[in-house]
Design goal:
- The chain has 84 residues and is of the alpha+beta class.
- The chain has a single domain (4-76), classed as Glutaredoxin (3-Layer(aba) Sandwich), CATH 3.40.30.10.
- The chain contains three helices and four strands, in the order E-H-E-H-E-E-H.
- The chain has helices spanning 13-25, 38-48, 66-76, and strands at residues 4-8, 31-33, 55-58, 61-64.
- Helix 1 runs parallel beside helix 3 (66-76).
- It starts with a strand and ends in an 8-residue tail after the last helix.
Length: 84
């Protein structure tokens, strides 16, 4: 499985959509809340080029848009053990 991190902001409905999907599917990823600190926001900008969330970083490449992130997880996370 590639190294992944999800950048999000709790007040963002699109982030909540991705987080809800992950919870329902038992997918656990490292999460970084960009509203917590300027460092996390800057980290996202350094890797992805913008501070847009949700953003799934996959092996240092940014994937934006909640539907695209969910679709990627559906197609690529299936080999990992899921917690139900």
């Amino acid at each position: 499985m590639p190294e992944m991190t999800l950048y999000y902001k709790p007040s963002c409905p699109y982030c909540q959509k991705v987080l809800h999907f992950m919870k329902n599917e038992g997918i656990e990823l490292p999460l970084k809340n960009i509203a917590e600190s300027a460092e996390k926001r800057q980290e996202l900008m350094d890797v992805g080029g913008k501070a847009q969330v949700p953003c799934l970083i996959i092996e240092a490449k940014a994937l934006y848009e909640s539907d695209d992130i969910i679709e990627w997880l559906k197609n690529n996370y299936q080999d990992e053990p899921r917690k139900h």
